[in-house]
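Dear Dr. H.,

I hope your travels went smoothly. While you were away I took the liberty of generating a structure for the chain from your last submission, since the lab meeting agenda had it listed for discussion. I wanted you to have the full record in hand beforehand rather than looking at slides cold. The sequence, exactly as received, is reproduced here:
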Amino acid sequence: MYQAVLANRFGCDSTVTLNLTVNPSDTTSLFAQICPGEHYPVDSNEFDEAGVYETWFTNQDGCDSLVILYLQMLPQSDTLIVKEIIEGDSIKVGSTVYRDTGIFSEMLTNRFGCDSLVTIHLTVRDSLPGNSNTTLPEHELQVVVYPNPADEFVQVKFENFAGHFKIKLLSVDGQLIHTKEGDSYSGIHLETISTNGYSRGIYIIEIEAHGLQIHKKIILR
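The corresponding predicted structure, in token form, is as follows:
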């Protein structure tokens, strides 16, 4: 409460009393996750990249209200399966059953709730090569590349994999920018590729293992 003594129009004292109430401003933190291609709306704004975003509103008391959005981009995954089967046999990927030779694609959902592209290279043979105890070859390469878009680094995560691998960073016209080789001795292996010093734009990550190749487009910002 504040008081001030003034002079009224008759030249006499006039006491003014001010009862001042300061209404509080408020801050709200939001933590959200989206998949590539999705967006998260806050008021009239839509955010589609990982980051921290601030949006100002007016609260019910007419004061500032700050909403801070912590947005995380979940990764997509890519799986390449190379398999041979005997005529009459089949394999099931997702809800689809495959019985014929060919290259097929299935869009599934990975454990993050995002798209998982599965590519199947299927060969159907009339009979087993050699004797009946021969096992037909099967190779599978499953990788997750994130974050995408990326700033200072890209991570390549191998899942259910053990063996030698090679990772290449290529320009969109196929020029080799960086290469890295190594070995994985466990079911899950993580490699970090530094992108410091590279120009903004679109690049290709090429992952090779077990004679299989996966190509993934990434954006450096």
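Two observations you may find useful: Residues 2 and 18 are 5 Å apart (CA to CA). The chain is about 0% helix and 65% strand.

With kind regards,
E. W.
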